Amino acid sequence: MLTHYGPQLVNLFAAVLLLLAFAMLSQRRMLSLINLFAAQGFVLFLTTSLVAALTGQHHLYWSALLTLALKVILLPWILHRLIRKLNIKWDVETLINIPTTMLVGIVLVVLAFNLALPISQLAGTVTRSTLGIALASVLLSFLMMITRSKAIPQVIGFLAMENGLFFAATGAVYGMPMVVELGVALDVLVGALILGIFIFQIRERFDSLDTRHLERLKEL
Amino acid sequence: MIEMLALLASPLAGALVLALYGHRERAAEVNAFFSIVTFGAAAALTGRIVAHGPLRVLHEQFFVDSLNVFLVALTAFIGMTTALFSRPYMRIERDHGRVSAAGLRLYHSMYQMFSFTMLLVLTTNNLGIMWVAMEAATLTTVLLVALYRTPASLEAAWKYFILCGVGIAQALFGTILVYFAAERVLGPGVGSLLWTHLDAVKASLEPTVMSIAFVFLLVGYGTKVGLVPLHNWLPDAHAEGPTPVSAVLSGLLLNVALYALIRCKVIADGSLHQAGGLPFASSLMMGFGLLSVVVGAFFLSRQRDIKRMFAYSSIEHMGLIAFAFGMGGPVASFAGLLHMTMHSLTKSAIFFAVGHATQKTGTQLMENIRGLMRVSPTVGWGLMLGTLAILGMPPFGVFASEFLILTQAIALRPWAAPILLGALGIAFAAIFGKVQPMVFGDTTAKRLPHPPALLPVFAHLGIVLLLGLYMPPYLAAWYRQAARLIG
Q1: Cα Rg of chain B, angstroms
Q2: What number is the ipTM of this complex?
Q3: What are the backbone dihedrals phi and psi of residue B64, each rounded to the nearest 5 degrees, phi first?
Q4: Per residue in A112-153, pLDDT tens?
Q5: Which end of chain A is more exposed for a tag (fewer CB within 10 A), N or C?
């Protein structure tokens, strides 16, 4: 049963992941953005557990638990606290040109699929078709960081990019060695905490979280 | 083994101790003490490698050969001199009210943590750990750049974090692809990420995957090296952070990132070599390098902030080094390694002198810094000699390495030689024209409450001068051996 539907289920989850990446790209509400990020983390947890069950790679269960703890519980909790403290829970960001951004996103997805094609053909994993999706969600998060002007969406874009990379590792090679995954998770956690502190300081100095204020250092 | 452990344990212990006591009066001395111990361990490790050859310890998780041991020694040495320099420098900053006691604690602790992460990048054999340590180095320096909490420094740190975070994420994707290629040859597990194992089987790694992987690695680590067009964070971070941090960023972090890139290039070249065709990795490095030299040189003349100007000079020199490694061959790689050493020593010496010059005049704007020679001849001479050295004037060592790179360019890539020469000429005119009035003429400088630490400046410049005049045979043999590893 599992061996039959398993690979298809992985592909389904991968598609959901990509959909969530697009949803984040177009989401204007701060609170919903954080929830989308948590949802993406949860899908990642499901996928990793499923791949672990399909392939019998036990270390993937640990990675899945790490994902659940870090990206579904801890980081969203920190972000929720942050927006509550900064009192921007209901903030709506004015995004110009969502349709254009979406179109650029589609082009990026095509690009990612083309780039991943020669690699996934070589892969022997049951999840090989997901590599293109993983690269696409990395690029979409990248796009999100570029198009957003507020600090918190940029941070979420940064974290979502790490989600895509994690998914790439799971899909292409059944996860990196455990020591590396732990190191990456630690870096992401510390990075998120530092950015959280920074956001307070930026708000204190500039009275705003709009990073368009952070454009004074430039060439003359 | 014991040297290796001491090398990593000393800065880590320093970071912990200073995280607790870094605000005390004697913290600067403790900071210097840990850096001196680290340098001692590095010297012992170097002696061992020179005597007994490459070393692999702890289940091959750490690997030291003649290529990275020279960078370990350089990193530990400049880490030590910068700690000595920052002792009076940060006291003066505190007296000027720019940094609080809590800020000093953060500074001292992160300084040691930064040394630790750099040494970890240099000594680890695991490409995954290398990435983790590189990201950790970014995080520690972000905190250091934002130390003054001014709007400009927060902006610089935010930009630094976002740009390098994005860049380094690309490097992680590249690392995943390298693991993917290696897994097919070596099987799953930590072994497939160990550089020594990859090096042994590099000829049988899948070339398509490796070429895509190298592009991602180049973009990722290239962001940290400051290669154009990924350099935008670099001038801001150098200009807005405390000067000791500018010195280690320019003198050490860029080198360490370049080291990571070189290790990846060796593997990628080995894999692509079997496929025949163009030396893909080398061409990419040459292209990015040349672009950095030209853009760096042209931006020099437009700067008004002294630290920004020398940051652009770092971009230019990093481009030159990347170009040398891209050309490849024993002589060009030798020249690249030599230039890495010379640039690190000279540029950190310049930043030390610049640090005291800006403290004496209270500004980083070059038009307001005048006549340093009048008030303090040592700072003036330090800046002047450092500038002459970095511009490649004989008899300083930078001249020797730049000369070697240029002659190799003429021999191997004749089309690039006039571009390089032109860019170096522009850089000379831009920097010399701005430094000369800062040093000579009527003065705007005043005295400082603590005597400045200028010993590191002249120690660095002395070494650069010495190596320019005479290179001991064992050192030359050592560089040659390291250059052979790069190919």
Answers
A1: 21
A2: 0.92
A3: -125, 125
A4: 999 888 888 887 666 777 888 999 999 999 888 888 888 888
A5: N
Q: Is A128 exposed, middle or buried (0-12, 13-18, 19+ CB in 10 A)?
A: middle
**What is the enclosing helix (H) or strand (E) of B365?**
none
- Decide if B219 contacts B230 (C-beta within 8 A): yes
**Closest residue to A217, CB basis, from B128, B155, B302:** B155
Residue A136 amino acid letter:
A
The mean pLDDT value of chain A amounts to: 86
CA distances from B284 to A168, B47, B295 (A): 25, 35, 17
Q: Which helix (H) or strand (E) holds B316?
A: helix B306-327
* B132, B146, B209 member nearest A119 (Cβ): B209
CB atoms within 10 A of CB B203: 12
Q: Find chain A residues with C-beta within 8 A of B179's C-beta.
A: 169, 173, 176
Cβ-based contacts of A119 with chain B (< 8 Å):
177, 180, 208-209, 212
**Which of B14-18's residues contact partners 24+ apart within 8 Å by CB, and which partners?**
B14/B38, B14/B112, B14/B115, B15/B109, B15/B110, B15/B112, B15/B113, B15/B116, B16/B109, B18/B105, B18/B108, B18/B109, B18/B111, B18/B112
Domain boundaries, chain A: 2-219
Residue bearing tokens 């004989």: B394
> What percent of chain B has pLDDT above 90?
62
